[in-house]
Amino acid sequence: MDHQRLAQSTDPAIAAGPVLLLSVDYEDWHQLVRRRYGDPGWSEPGPALARQTQTILELFDELGVRCTFFILGVTARAHPDLVRRIAAAGHEIGSHGDAHAPVWRQTATEFADDLRRATATIEQLTGQRPRGYRAPAFSITSAAGWAYDVIAAEGFEYDASQSPAPSLRSATGSASRGPYERGAGVLWEFPVAASRWRSVCMPLGGASYWSVAPTRVVLAGLRRVPPLSGLYLHPQEFDPEPLDPLLGRANGAAGRARIRARTWQRNAARSRAVPVLRAIAKRHDLISYGEAHARLVQNRAAGARPLPFQGTPVR
Fold first, then answer.
1. Spatial separation of the C-alpha atoms in residues 17 and 24, rounded to whole Å
2. Distance between CA 10 and CA 15 in Å, rounded?
3. Topology of 22-302 in CATH?
4. What's this model's pTM, rounded to 2 decimal places?
5. In this structure, are residues 174 and 203 in contact, taking their beta carbons and an 8 Å threshold?
6. How many C-beta atoms surround the C-beta of residue 256 within 10 A?
7. What SS3 state is found at 168?
8. Which residues of the chain have pLDDT under 50?
9. pLDDT digit string, tens, across residues 226-280
């Protein structure tokens, strides 16, 4: 892709782009990386999530934004006070499922059980029943389309599990589609932000993409996405300290090499997340998924255009 030509296609310092949706997939990176590499104590709370959460909440207060936190059940049970703190700060609480298991690996019954466990944990800790869901690793593939029926049956009002990233297994997202209703309007779908440049799909919704593209390219691309496209971040991307999986030397040479490579990748995203998000917030209105869903439902009931959202002037 010609990044320079894309960056020059629009001056991001001029009028604001479309309204974007802000979310955090709230999970404990130390828990998940230890589980991946067979640490028997993986379910114990990681040491960094508290400082990551503090950084996130302070940054969002600075930017004057409210976010949707898609809460992972195992993380919520390990860090109940942090989940309560997020809810008390006025952010929307959504569900990221319970065990961070790919949806395509589960049966419909297993998936429903996973959703129920997470919902029960979230309700117990926050007093809120989540209205929105995001699958771990965007793992509702084309072969697991049955999952949307389960999500609706479990009482969710919207889903945010579609991403057009070409690296995902049988990705179901589109680079040019905004929010839409599934079936008879039972479930709204909110895809992740992506832009199309000629024949190339350019995912733009997460810090892992921001780590490999210049900020100017990210900003220019986001001006081209449909209104109410989604941004997704993770707590470890806000860590003020370098990430360390703290696994010791028990995983063998090959395992340690994979861990080092994964940690390097996560630290690259960590170094870019905050400055790029600040730049985005200067050019776009950032709102929660719940707010967007409420606007769409209200507009639908009033017979208005479903997507009349455009950003306010640059701050």
1. 21
2. 10
3. TIM Barrel (3.20.20)
4. 0.88
5. no
6. 16
7. coil
8. 1-15, 169-170, 175, 311-315
9. 999 999 999 999 999 998 887 765 556 666 677 777 788 888 889 999 999 999 9
Report the chain's terminal Cα–Cα distance, integer Å: 30
Q: Which residues pair with 192 in a beta bridge?
A: 230
Across the chain, what does the average pLDDT equal? 86
Measured between alpha carbons, how far is 304 from 50 in angstroms, rounded to an integer?
43
Cα Rg, the chain, nearest whole Å:
19
Length of the chain: 315
Quickly tell me which residue has 């503090």 as its tokens: 54
Contacts of 177 (CB under 8 A, 6+ apart): 191, 226
Q: What percent of the chain has pLDDT over 70?
A: 83
CB 122 within 8 A of CB 131: no
* Residue type (1 letter), 246: L
Q: How many CA atoms lie within 13 A of 140 on its CB side?
A: 23
Which residue is it, tokens 């989940």?
A: 83
**Sequence-ordered list of residues with C-beta below 8 angstroms from that of 30, at least 6 positions apart, any chain:** 46, 47, 48, 49, 245, 246
- Give CA–CA dist 134/236, Å, rounded: 18
Token code pair at residue 133: 């869901």
Q: What one-letter code names the amino acid at 247?
A: L
Is-contact 27 97, C-beta < 8 A? no
Nearest to 289 by CA among 205, 190, 177, 182: 190
